[in-house]
Amino acid sequence: MFLFSLTVFSQIPDSLYFSNAIKINFAQYKKESTLAFVTGDLERGQFLFDSLVQHRLIGTTFDNITLKKSSGARLKLSSVKQPLFLLTYASWCVPNQGEIPALNKLARKYGKDVKIIVLFWDRKDKMKKLARKFSSRITVCYAHEYYKTDTRTVAALKHTLGFPTSYFLDAERKIVDIRRCGVYTGLSKEQSQQALAANYKSFLDGLLTITVNKDISKEHIADSD
């Protein structure tokens, strides 16, 4: 199997943007991850993803993209002055059970400390119904190849790490972590509270990487006990 060069990965200029960093080794990553997928080696696939994130992407600056809100307004990321939690979805890729309720709960409790954005890879008319399920404290946006203004965003995010994916950025848009978002529980609808709890804990763990909010730390410790 091909192996990534950690020597190359370890040298990341502070000024490097995410979109440039992902281009450097994406072809090699895609080749190896596709092989892992074809052979059913999920552990290898996760290892490749984690290696790319840890050694190539963390520490880079997230591009100052402009997103279209479902409300009709626009949001430029540089206007956000707090840590940012960005999730990418698609309307045809149904979130795991308990995922949206977990995000809504997180937004109600910590929406003042962290900006939460959900980005759908869809045209506006395709994602409006699902967007209504999210809390008003979550900024729901969309981007699609159909819109010329989204070319840069789609190329940098959708066609590289795929979706669903979680991006955790500090207040300066530096990438602190990137994760596959949500937790697949395989639970029945009757066990929805367990699914909510599992996803909430996963998202809470991600928030700890970008904020020093004492309440989040206390809640995380309590959940771990």
Automatic annotation (TrEMBL):
UniProt-listed SUPFAM superfamilies: Thioredoxin-like
Residue stretches making up the Thioredoxin domain: 56-201
Entry superkingdom: Bacteria
Pfam families found in the cross-reference section: AhpC-TSA (PF00578)
Listed PROSITE patterns: THIOREDOXIN_2
Gene3D superfamilies reported for this sequence: Glutaredoxin
UniProt xrefs under InterPro entries: AhpC/TSA, Thioredoxin-like_sf, Thioredoxin_domain
Coiled coil: none
Protein name listed in UniProt: TlpA family protein disulfide reductase
